Amino acid sequence: MRLLDRLVLGEVAAATAAATGGGVFVLSAGNVVKQIAGEVASGRMTALQAAELVALVMPGVVPYALPLGVLTGILIAFGRLGAQNELTAMRAGGVSLGRIAAPALLLAGLLSLAAAAVNLEVAPRANTAYRDLLRGAAERNPVAAIVPGELCRAFPGAVLRAGGRDGDKLTDLALWRVDGAGRITQSLHAREATARLAEDDAGGRRLVIDARDVRVDRRSGGESRASTYASLERAETVIPLGAAQEGRRKLRWLTTSELLGAARDGWDVAPDADAATRERSRLDAARQLHAHLAGAAAILALAALAIPLSLRVGRSETLANAGLGLAVALGHYLLTAAAGWIPSTAAPPALLAWAPTLAVAALGAWLFRRASAR
Predict the structure, then answer these.
(1) Rounded distance, CA 146 to CA 52, Å?
(2) Does pTM surpass 0.90?
(3) Which of 111, 229, 246, 298 has the highest local Cβ count within 10 Å?
(4) Of 139-148, 153-162, 258-267, the least confident
(5) 290 CB-near residues (< 8 Å, 6+ apart)
(6) What angle do CA 156, 265, 274 make, to 5 degrees?
(7) Count of C-beta atoms within a 10 Å radius of residue 131
(8) C-alpha to C-alpha distance for 208 and 182, rounded to whole angstroms
(9) Model pLDDT for residues 211-237, shown as the tens digit of each residue
(10) Distance of alpha carbon 117 from its chain centroid, rounded?
(11) Which of 212, 348, 205, 219 shows the shortest CA–CA distance to 290?
(12) Is 75 exposed, middle or buried (0-12, 13-18, 19+ CB in 10 A)?
């Protein structure tokens, strides 16, 4: 039995590693090419800092790539064993399907535990460090942080977008001031502007934008429409850089202890928020905590589903099995996304987070039971 265990485990581990590596590459390539390469090209970041950013990207994509990798790896490995009649020989020798699948399920269980640790601790810390490193690069060379045609969120309390940039000169500039809740309080649109660094009396650094041919709209109390308008030939606006602000963090960036605290006290709510808003924020935090755990458990659920599927397909072609794995994983992701559209107040947070994974686990258990009875 040890020889059979090593055979199954070796096949599954090799295929899983290859599939997961491909998934990590595909999911992280967009960030690496679009954002990190742009940071290096603009001179805001050194090659060593860019390598650090690449390393910080990986923990955030591993939880998404690992379920796909395990599912595809098992489909490829068991499909190859089935096509070569090795599974048939094992079962003819009296070895049950559960015993044959034990090494693969053990590997999937260990990877689920590892993914839970990544989801709850490693990825949130890496995402926060990634944001802080990018923000630090923007503070060292803030003008270069404004990339033409893209929204720039590198500065606390402001979002900028420029149609073009030539050194410190900006064209078709839009600037939105936002409050702590992310609501727009002021918008400024200028035909052209000049951005420069300056220091205030206390030695704090600030970005000074001298805009020309300007339209300024102001809002109050979170209104969706502007309450006052002004058209100016020239206006100067200042964005402070010296006092770095923590900024808003996404719920999935919170560690376990932070999520537990948010589930108890609420997260990112104004001091004067009503009881319904606070309750909704607490439910959102509890749901995110369960989502981290359910996402990790999905690895084991998808593994249990992949084994009977591989017996039904019984193909040795890698591309065919990889395509099937991608289709099944996409179905699970779509279920998870659909559950995410349901408000947290509509059902218990645990149910909303675990429903897709439990559905996959139930289908896998049913198919596995049928396959074992044959």
Answers:
(1) 22
(2) no
(3) 298
(4) 139-148
(5) 349, 350, 352, 353, 354
(6) 80
(7) 17
(8) 22
(9) 899 888 887 655 556 567 788 888 888
(10) 15
(11) 348
(12) buried
